[in-house]
Design goal:
binds 6-O-phosphono-beta-D-fructofuranose, 45% helix, alpha/beta, 5-stranded parallel sheet, single chain, 526 residues, 6-stranded mixed sheet
């Protein structure tokens, strides 16, 4: 199956798109032309609502987009994922993160249940004090050492669900090889009461290994005995041998399987810090929410399928309206890390330029996703969204109820700001006296509304975006589950590290790198 370009469905959409590029097109006129547009252009699944009514869609658009979805065999691809087909084609693997949260998968994958039970045992022991450090003291702090999918998802979920914490144990995340990241985390902690989680699917990621070694040194400088490692380190990895070689006690190892992609892995033992923070019941609620959305994704008609509709809209703007990026703005301070998590999910999955068969893709692929929590974004980048030259579709995420505060007035201001920004993007404003005040409007946006931010609902939201990304990859006919592009930089960093270790940089390096290395030597104070 080819990419979408040049196909009949694609050509029909190209012609149709001209309607919305006409100088007289006004997005808000679509509401006047269609009573009940909100009802007809929104989908609810339990207490997650997708309002996609503020989009370039007339009565013909969705049928054309759905025609493209059928042409690209989206329904078959959904079935293939849930069936465990090797849809990660370049690595010959399945992508079965949905099994991690599906109770029905227990028979086919007993290892999932075994691992959940092992996680539960550790969580209980850490919570009730049965797990003690080398001095016999209880654990007060857990430090997750990982990066990318071994950090972003768990860190975001722990931030988002902090009000659901079932323990006073503090959970910290260290990812960067910048030594300040680990040091500034450890300076307030005690080795006697700190438990480290080394989260690394490959157990070969430089940042994670260096931080793990430094953490172990920090512990052993105080504990003196290497035996202390067993009381203060656990690991989650598919490379169990490397973890044992590092010194992790075999009973403290949690397996990770090759059919779980890093950016899709928080549902696995990579979610251990989440389970420690929330308790196992909370973690299972997160899984259940994702499973609920999975069932929606697997069973809903394409026309009523939230991830499919959202993916088709993203494709519509990326392909036919030259949208170079999309802003995701959660109106919740608890979700401030959410855009960073989405960046890996989107850009490591969709940042590809050849099809699954290795042919160059004719379309522009890969959504550049960015954003921060609202309302803060209104005071930094919303100016560009309202009056800039870029066409940037926006996903707003809003929560009706706030679990952190009873201040319903401020919560209402927050929601009012979210809805007003979406309206302003659509309506714009003409100022005949002062052109600098003109706001063009006609900017599309979606609003995802949740009743509240709890583990179950967050699980649904995350699964929604995972499946949206997958559908986009199917439309583009690219592999969403590999990331060969990150290998080159990793390999070069070893070469440059070696070049920086000598008195002068190797002459085979380019002049810029050599010049930079010379300047480092000149300015280095330590
Ligand atoms: O960024 C490349 C990558 O392989 C990601 O896909 C992954 O989430 C991250 O590095 C960390 O990998 P690991 O869990 O193997 O340390």
């Amino acid at each position: 199956m080819e990419g979408p370009g040049d196909s009949s469905a694609w050509k029909a959409l190209l012609e149709h798109s001209e309607l919305f590029k006409h100088k007289d097109f006004r997005l808000n006129k679509l509401f006047r032309a269609e009573d009940g547009r909100f009802e007809s252009k929104s989908i609810s699944h339990e207490n997650l609502l997708l309002d996609y009514s503020k989009n370039y869609l007339n009565q013909d658009t969705l049928p054309l987009l759905l025609g493209l979805a059928r042409q690209q065999h989206v329904s078959e691809a959904i079935d293939a994922m849930f069936r465990g087909d090797k849809i990660n084609t370049t690595e010959g693997r399945a992508a079965l993160h949905v099994a991690l949260r599906d109770p029905a998968s227990a028979d086919a994958h007993p290892e999932i249940t075994d691992t959940l039970n092992k996680m539960e045992a550790l969580v209980d022991d850490v919570h009730n004090g049965a797990w003690q450090g080398y001095t016999g003291e209880f654990i007060t702090d857990v430090v997750n050492i990982g990066i990318g999918g071994s950090d972003l998802g768990p860190a975001m979920v722990c931030d988002a669900l902090g009000s659901f914490a079932s323990t006073a144990i503090r959970v910290h995340f260290v990812s960067n090889i910048d030594p300040a990241h680990l040091q500034n985390t450890l300076k307030n902690l005690k080795p006697e009461t700190t438990l480290f989680i080394i989260a690394s699917k490959s157990f070969s990621t430089l940042e994670t290994l260096k931080n793990a070694e430094s953490a172990r040194l920090w512990l052993l400088q105080k504990a003196q005995s290497p035996a202390a490692t067993a009381r203060h380190f656990v690991a989650i990895t598919s490379n169990l041998q490397a973890a044992v070689q590092f010194g992790i006690d075999e009973k403290n190892l949690f397996p990770l399987w090759d059919w779980v992609g890093g950016r899709f892995s928080l549902w696995s033992a990579i979610g251990l810090p989440i389970a420690i923070l929330l308790g196992m019941d909370g973690f299972r609620q997160l899984l259940a929410g994702a499973n609920s959305l999975d069932e929606h994704f697997r069973s809903a008609e394409l026309s009523e399928n939230m991830p499919v509709i959202s993916a088709l809209l993203s494709f519509w703007y990326r392909e036919f309206f030259d949208a170079h990026s999309t802003a995701t703005v959660p109106y919740s301070q608890r979700l401030n890390l959410f855009p960073s998590y989405l960046q890996q999910l989107y850009m490591e999955s969709l940042g590809k330029s050849v099809s699954v068969r290795g042919e160059k893709i004719k379309s522009n692929t890969g959504e550049i996703v960015w954003g921060t929590a609202g309302s803060n974004g209104q005071h930094s980048y919303f100016q560009l969204l309202h009056q800039g030259t870029e066409f940037v579709p926006v996903d707003f995420i809003a929560l009706v109820n706030n679990n952190d505060s009873d201040d319903i007035e401020c919560q209402q201001y927050l929601l009012a700001n979210c809805f007003s920004q979406s309206l302003a993007l659509m309506e714009g404003k003409t100022d005949k006296e002062f052109v600098h005040k003109n706001v063009r409007g006609n900017k599309p946006s979606n609003t995802l509304l949740l009743s509240e931010l709890n583990p179950y609902n967050l699980g649904k939201l995350l699964a929604f975006y995972e499946h949206k990304v997958y559908v986009l990859s199917v439309i583009w006919n690219i592999n969403a589950f590999d990331q060969w592009g990150v290998e080159l930089g990793k390999n070069l960093s070893g070469q440059i590290f070696a070049a920086m270790s000598g008195p002068t940089p190797e002459s085979n390096l380019d002049d810029s790198t050599q010049g930079l290395i010379r300047k480092v030597h000149e300015w280095k104070s330590k």
